[in-house]
Amino acid sequence: MKIRRHSSAGGFTIVETLGVIVLIGILAVLAGMAVFGLYGAGQDKQAIAAAQSINQAEQIYLVRVSGAATAWSNASGDSAKFALISAYLPGTPSSLTAYEPSGYTFSFGSILNSQVTITGPHGAVAY
């Protein structure tokens, strides 16, 4: 007696395999866009936190230093204004460019009570 074995071809067809590969590719692209979007938002949040620290340092400088408003008006440029308030910032940064997150610039107002303006890689950052 002979025993017959039924051999059924197991596995996936090439069309099914290509379909799965395409789906994985689409999901990878969507995940990548989400991750990079979060990365950019995180950088904006870091710049906003640094700008808020500068705004607080300006307020402390205004309260603790007599003639602060005059010294601020007489300061020539953002670097000079930053030097006035750097003692009131955490970590005592050496310069404004060292304090700014990479790709961001801060601009100080002409009066001491104005908020710092943030410009990022994609334009102005509102906070």
Describe the structure.
The model has no long low-confidence stretch (mean pLDDT 90). A 3-stranded antiparallel beta sheet has the order 1-2-3, with helices on one face. The protein has helices at residues 14-64, 68-74, 78-85, 96-99; strands at residues 105-107, 117-120, 123-125. The protein has one domain (14-125). Strand 2 (117-120) and strand 3 form a beta hairpin. It has 4 helices and 3 strands; from the N terminus they run ααααβββ. With 127 residues, the protein is mainly α.
Uncertain ranges: none
Percent of residues in helices:
55-70%
Count up the helices.
4
In percent terms, what proportion of residues is strand? Answer: 5-15%
Count every beta strand, where a strand is a DSSP E run of 2 or more residues. 3
- Rg from C-alpha positions? 29 Å
Query: Which structural class matches the secondary elements?
Result: mainly alpha
Question: How far is the first residue's CA from the last residue's CA?
Answer: 85 Å
Spatial shape = rod-shaped
* Sequence of strands across the biggest β-sheet: 1-2-3
Following the backbone from N to C, one meets helices and strands in this order, namely HHHHEEE
Q: Let me know the largest β-sheet.
A: 3 strands, antiparallel
